[in-house]
Amino acid sequence: MLSSKSKIMNRQKFIMALALGVVPALALAKRVFNLVAQGPVVGGGCDGCELIYEGMPGKLSNAAYMPGWKTGEQKLIVQGTVYRKDKHTVAPNVIVYIYHTDSKGYYSQLAGQMDGKRHGRLRGWIKTGCDGKYTFYTTMPAAYPERNNPAHIHPIIKEPGINEYYIDEYRFDNDPLLTSALRSKAENRGGNGVVKLRKNAAGILVCKRDIILGQNIPNYA
């Protein structure tokens, strides 16, 4: 185990290496946020999971307002509780990162956006507290313009000491594109990702999904 002094020195050296262009910014983000996995790689392949670190705020809470929340688009509140694999014990200090399309089905970007361009502007992070709960304030995604895939929200999970991994997308139970064939193919990574929408008193769509860490995740201890 490295001492606290050694860790500080290593971090300082790493930041200097970044300034000199020796290491990529993404690698620095992993070190700065102390998110490097300490055990076996879990979850299998994960295309784009590394973008969780690009633009990640230095301080996270259990609620996040995503770009677009204050616009005239259909507002959506995504909420739930993160549990450990036993399905009963709440899980604190877990980062949940999501991204999704805009109301036209595109991963549109913010003007001048540099971080996470591939995931577009509608992306956000939370970190669960002692009660394991999370909330995202965002807008309703649309299906891709080709209409070949149901509307969905991509989630990526980062637990302390474990590499980032994806879980099943959030999909909406009333979506006509969500066929029985697609439902039957779901892996249920992290639990069932199909959610039911309801409107609250303010006319805002709300959905709830509890996440089970490690459920149907390859190599998860």
Task: Based on the model shown, name its key terms.
221 residues; 12 strands; alpha/beta; 2 domains; globular; single chain; 6-stranded mixed sheet; Protocatechuate 3,4-Dioxygenase, subunit A; 13% helix
> What is the number of strand segments?
12
CATH topology of the largest domain: Protocatechuate 3,4-Dioxygenase, subunit A
Report the structural category. Answer: alpha/beta
Write the element-wise H/E pattern from the N-terminal end onward: HHEEEEEEEEHEEEE
Distance between the termini: 22 Å
Instruction: Give me the CATH superfamily of the largest domain.
Output: Aromatic compound dioxygenase
Q: Evaluate the radius of gyration.
A: 18 Å
Proportion of beta-strand residues:
15-25%
Overall domain count: 2
User: What general form does the structure show?
Assistant: globular
Average pLDDT, rounded to a whole number, is 87
What does the secondary structure layout of this molecule look like, with pairings?
Layout: H1 4-19, H2 25-32, E1 63-65, E2 75-83, E3 95-100, E4 123-127, E5 133-139, E6 152-158, E7 165-166, E8 170-172, H3 180-184, E9 194-195, E10 198-199, E11 205-208, E12 211-212
Parallel strand pairs: 1-5, 2-11, 2-12, 8-9
Antiparallel strand pairs: 2-5, 3-4, 3-6, 6-7, 6-8, 10-11
Helix pairs in contact: 1-2
Brief overview, please?
With 221 residues, this protein is α/β, with parallel strands linked by helices. It is 13% helix and 24% strand. The protein folds into 2 domains: 32 residues; 179 residues, Sandwich (Protocatechuate 3,4-Dioxygenase, subunit A).
